[in-house]
Design goal:
The complex is a heterodimer.
Chain A: E1 12-16, H1 21-32, E2 36-41, H2 44-52, E3 60-63, H3 72-83, E4 86-91, H4 106-127, E5 133-142, H5 155-174, E6 181-187, H6 193-200, H7 204-212, H8 221-232, E7 243-246
Parallel strand pairs in A: 1-2, 1-4, 2-3, 4-5, 5-6, 6-7
Helix pairs in contact in A: 1-8, 3-4, 4-5
Chain B: H1 3-13, H2 35-49, H3 55-59, H4 64-70
Helix pairs in contact in B: 1-2
Classes of the chains: A alpha/beta, B mainly alpha.
Chain lengths: ~250, ~80
Amino acid sequence: MIANPLDLSSRTVLVTGASSGIGRECAILLSSLNARVVIVGRDESKLEETSLLLAGSGHRIEPFDFLATEKIASWVKRIAGEVGPLHGFVHAAGHQLVTPVRTLTLSALEEQMRLNLFSGIMLAQGFCQKGCFVRGGSIVFISSIMASLGKPAISAYCASKAGLLGFTRSLALELVREKIRVNCITPSIVESNMSSTLKDLMLPEQWTALEEAHPLGFGTPRDVANAAAFLLADTGRWITGTALVVDGGYSAQ
Amino acid sequence: MTKAEFLRSFDTILELPEGTLKGSEKLEDLENWNSMAMIDFIALADTNNNVKLSARQIGSAETVADLLQLAKVDQ
């Protein structure tokens, strides 16, 4: 029998944003690949719902609000102390602020940066602490195709995701010595709560035009989860410091 | 946010001199009323009145007063 190259047996992976969308789907897929997952999100009841969808056993629910940036590193230390060193994490938690620059407030900008960028940086810092990670581990950030492209009214979001992309490249080089790979995925629109919110802000004809701009149509959370599993598992052994575009062909035009 | 404050902010969004809008104006007559201004208004309602509006709701408005009503601004 041929071994599954995506197998994650005896590896513990922390997944943020696991209460819905991409994060939830990552947790489900990784558990089906035999990983033990620590699922993280703000809403404990939604995490409970996710946990019911996980395969295998030994998983853990950790409610956490990533606006509490200052507490992230010590929080990771505590979790690793309780579940053992982590093989890696998928950071899918995030928020899309839709506001043109002229009505953007500093507090909204700061919140956007804390949730999408600072949280990822501090999560990596927490992960890098002694005893928190295993050599040969893998970090996956969920950035966005908007890290490289632009659309009106989401400039703060684009900046936060571009920041994550830059952070990925530098951190990848920094952690080579520990044999930790660092990559990000840059998806376009997938069907999720975030895309529903965006859809509400657009007229039906605008939404249709956006969908038509995706040669393969809009994606699903599973499309992104598949890429995350690929980067976490040994299949990604020779990949670090890169951005994997998963966008249905949106940026090919 | 009071009606006067909302109208002032809306003046800014539409790049009009402060004090221009009174409420009775038809949106179709306002030169800078476009999809970006719609998003600005949605953000304004959310940030200041904690009212979440959709583009579809905004699209149903005909006058500035209709928008204020959607944003639950006391008139």
